[in-house]
Amino acid sequence: MNREIQLKSEIAFLDGKFKAGSISSGFKLYDIYENGVFDKNSDGEMVCTIDKNHKIASEYLIGCRNLLNKKNTRIHISRLTLSDFRRFKTLKVKLDKHLTVIIGDNGAGKTTIVDGITKSLSWLSANILKKGGIGLRVTDYDVNIDSVSFAEVTLRASVNESSHYSISLFKTAKGAKEAKKK
């Protein structure tokens, strides 16, 4: 199938999902039109397959914001995994759709769990608000003192059941022999 036809088919598919409420599809369309699509031709040269169109990109970005600002918009965090993050060697938490309560003694890690969620969601929100937005980073302070590799926070979330996200943040430990591959 011709690449241009394939892209037009993908755009039509994403547009249908966006109209059905998928924020992630709308954001992908925003990205396509904001940056254009470039491919190598048969001679190995980069050619523009889909032109940049800031007006269309802006319409999709505004549409994403409108979906997020709708009354009854719900964000559900379904899973959180902390690896060598602060006091936790490994922690896997499955969060209930309706209510999750975190209880523990002082120093048990309640704030660490909330900070992991906060850092992850900051990247999602920063990229919806602004192209190339930057959220809160995992810092040297967040890396478990006994870690020999890296600290990682992984979060799975959905918005209104139609948009699903997986976010992974990491920081290589000081003195680690090898950095985590993206």
Features:
alpha+beta, 4-stranded antiparallel beta sheet, 182 residues, 26% strand, Rossmann fold, single chain, 4 helices, two-stranded antiparallel sheet, 2 domains
Task: Tell me what the CATH architecture of the largest domain is.
Answer: 3-Layer(aba) Sandwich
Beta-strand percentage range? 25-35%
> Largest sheet, if any?
4 strands, antiparallel
Please tell me the total number of domains.
Answer: 2
Contiguous low-pLDDT stretches (5 residues minimum) are none
Question: Total number of helical segments?
Answer: 4
Number of strands: 6
Overall 3D shape = globular
* Overall radius of gyration: 20 Å
CATH superfamily heading of the largest domain: P-loop containing nucleotide triphosphate hydrolases
The helix/strand series, from N terminus to C terminus, equals HHEEHEEHEE
Spatial arrangement of strands, main beta sheet: 4-3-5-6
Helix content: 25-40%
Structural class: alpha+beta
Spatial separation of the terminal alpha carbons: 30 Å
At the third CATH level, what is the topology name of the largest domain?
Rossmann fold
The top level CATH class name of the largest domain: Alpha Beta
Descriptive account of the structure:
36% of the residues lie in helices and 26% in strands. Strand 1 and strand 2 (46-50) form a beta hairpin. The chain folds into 2 domains: 3-69; 75-172, 3-Layer(aba) Sandwich (Rossmann fold), CATH 3.40.50. It contains 4 helices and 6 strands, in the order H-H-E-E-H-E-E-H-E-E. It is globular and about 55 Å long. The model has no long low-confidence stretch (mean pLDDT 88). The chain is of the alpha+beta class. The strands form 2 sheets. The chain has a 4-stranded antiparallel sheet with strand order 4-3-5-6. A two-stranded antiparallel sheet has the order 1-2.
